[in-house]
Amino acid sequence: QIDKYAQRDLKKGLHLYGTDGNIGLTNAWSIIQTDFRCCGVSNYTDWFEVYNASRVPDSCCLEFSENCGLHSPGTWWKAPCYETVKIWLQENLLAVGIFGLCTAMVQILGLTFAMTMYCQVVKADTYCA
């Protein structure tokens, strides 16, 4: 059920690709499609609705070149990005979890040391005043 909602929202987000003020989203899709060698959410035809034509972004091309997304589907990645990224996350869940826990520990230690230092400064001010 969650997969369907996520895929639906990602497909809606494709319509923002390349629009003004959405450079981060555009770059994210380009990087994902290039690095994971995939195209679209469920397949490359997701882009046909965005462009209202049989074309894809150049980041979907097997070999990148200017306007390569206008050529035939034989020159595009066939793998769905949603499934490809989902599998990658499942395979690397331990590393992602450890990274998250380490980041949380550093944050907690930073807060603890900051509070300890604050208490020492307040304590020193009461004796000096």
Automatic annotation (TrEMBL):
Membrane among keywords: yes
Principal localization? membrane
CC per GO annotation: plasma membrane
Q: How does it sit in the membrane?
A: Multi-pass membrane protein
Q: Where are the transmembrane segments?
A: 93-118
Q: Name one Pfam family in it.
A: Tetraspanin
UniProt entry keywords in alphabetical sequence: Glycoprotein, Membrane, Transmembrane, Transmembrane helix
Compartment(s) where it occurs, according to its Swiss-Prot or TrEMBL record: Membrane
Instruction: Identify the SUPFAM superfamilies for this entry.
Output: Tetraspanin
The Swiss-Prot or TrEMBL record describes its family as follows: Belongs to the tetraspanin (TM4SF) family.
Protein name stated in the entry = Tetraspanin-4
* Organism, as annotated: Merops nubicus
**What is the taxonomic lineage of the source species?**
Eukaryota, Metazoa, Chordata, Craniata, Vertebrata
